[in-house]
Automatic annotation (TrEMBL):
GO MF terms, alphabetically ordered: iron-sulfur cluster binding; metal ion binding; oxidoreductase activity
Keywords tagged on the record: Iron, Iron-sulfur, Metal-binding, Oxidoreductase
Keyword Iron-sulfur included in the entry's annotation: yes
Coiled coil ranges: none
Name of this protein: Thioredoxin reductase
Source species: Lachnospira multipara
Residue ranges annotated for the 4Fe-4S ferredoxin-type domain, each copy included: 386-419, 422-452
Entry-linked InterPro entries: 4Fe4S_Fe-S-bd, 4Fe4S_Fe_S_CS, FAD/NAD-bd_sf, FAD/NAD-binding_dom, Metab_Enz_Cyan_OpOx_G3PDH
Amino acid sequence: MERYDLIVIGAGPSGLSAGIEAAKAGASVIIFDENEKPGGQLFKQIHKFFGSKEHRAKVRGFNIGYQLLKEADEAGAKVQLSATVLGIYQDKEVVVKIKEGIKHFKADSIIVATGAAENMVPFEGWTLPGVIGAGAAQTMLNLHGILPGKKVLMLGSGNVGLVVSYQLKQCGCDVVALVDAAPRIGGYGVHAAKISRMGIPFYLPYTIKKVEGTDHVTGVTIAKLDPSFKFIEGTEMHFDVDTVCVAVGLSPMSQLLKMAGCKMEDNPRKGGQVPIIDEHGQTSIPGIFAAGDVSGIEEASSAMIEGRQAGIYAANYLGYIEDELMKEKEDELDKALDGLRQGMFAPSNRGKKIEKTEEGIDISNNLLAKGFVADEEIERFPGVVHKLGIHPVMECTQNIPCNPCQDACPKKCIKIGSKITSLPAVDESVDCIGCGMCVASCPGQAIFLVNENVGEGMAEITLPYEIYPLPEVGEKGIALSRAGHPLCIAEVIKVRTGLAFDKTAVLTIRVPKEFAMKARFYKNEKLAKSV
């Protein structure tokens, strides 16, 4: 039997972070994960993270995964892959299936960071091949390079459904619609907006009535719901698809904690059955801690901080960190975690309909219902200004914890202030140099550079672009509106890439000046002449 000071179960963002902190304190640490690759969800998250520098904002998920693996190696934490933990037994004995063998391990402390599993919702045809979880689709795309299908309907408008829909589109899939039974889009508005401007429609409150096919998916019928969540006859819509992705939330994978004898509770606000933990993440069994989604569903950024906290608490329990140092580190991490738990999407606001921003501005109802801010709504937000010459236009309209644009601008044209959830505003006393750093750094792709009049009745718009192959300078295509509707012919003036942009191209298009504040996406279209 092998012995360690600490066993961590789960090598995702929370587990790796926990193992790193405990190992840095001097504990002997082994981290088990049932997968062939470590990093959990991080390595399939190709998008840039929100938050601030301390939350690794504007860094892509898989790069964060590489950073954590390097830190774990440097700290001396051992990562054992293809290792399925079968159970936690008396005196913190852990039984693990490693490949084809069974091994026993013992530790003085255990951190369970097993994450969460996708929920599924039953409907007629839900067991057909081609009905898959959105996370499974993301794994196929970003880890294995396999398209889950060619024509896809997404059920669910939370952040997972929104992000995966965008990534499906990046990979060449035709996403025919996003459908949600709720009356409002559940994820970040900036995620919804970048999907809408690509021409993908939202249908709310709709859900799936039937998936068609015999041995695989060939189509899907959706219908509108009344306030009691019953189908409204005559509202059915049919789509020819070969894939249906389901993104209807996550449930904590807390079975090991229950098996170990930890006291549990059913807590819908945390996603399901979770362990009862104290202020240090310790369960009812001394020395067993829970961290990340297994103790309550949140974003990966929060899971990493919770993991670091768990590692510090475990190290203190083991005697490697004194109480005073633990408290110092705890305060620092609490501050970082509090920063992520503010704004419209804070845990305390789940299920609430927010009417106004923190600045007192009316929320965009069109964004919540259709996925884009209407032309008549956009001008009321502080990031949208009119100015001579090139200037930033920031269509960030919800209070979410994110501020990399403020740090990215070398001239300090953009101001957010000390509160991370404040809406970005333009400092009109400062001249923009058009470098594009703010455009590329925005995780929500909500920043544009606009020159409303470059002469001869034309305007230029610089926008983020992540669809490959990239357009070529001089080509002409279609400028699309926030709703994804064709507006006009657009000419590509400039295409910029570089290490600083981290795979987000910065594309400048020229359009008639009446579309300067309306054109928000470029479509390479051979039939542009017909628009």
